Amino acid sequence: MASKKAATKPQAQQRQQQDKRWNAAEQACREIMALLEALGPSLAAQQTATQYAQMAAVYYKKVRNGRVLSPGDFNLAADVAASARRALQALAPTLDFSSQPQAADCQRMLALADEVLAAMSELKAAGRRQA
Hints:
It is a single chain. With 131 residues, this protein is an all-alpha fold. Helices cover 82% and strands 0% of the residues.
């Protein structure tokens, strides 16, 4: 019996880490989409930024009801983050938003996108270590 508990504890920890990662990605996506909407007029001035923002919206619509509930949803959340980051890069190639009217929103969206992308990168690195 003790060996069964010992075997399930790492699985429970992995599940807990996964849930935490998914919840963070879900929250980040919601906030990214709200920020993209708020940045709409600024993004509209740059066609490429607008296209990346539209791609983020397409990926977000594919996430089940806006909820990250599976590895597939997490992959889509990473796509949302990557598209949002690319939109920001199209807006300001150096990612310096000090000249932008909504600089704080841009910085917040960049931080959120980077968090999701870092979690995805960490997950991929862990997968390579196990393989």
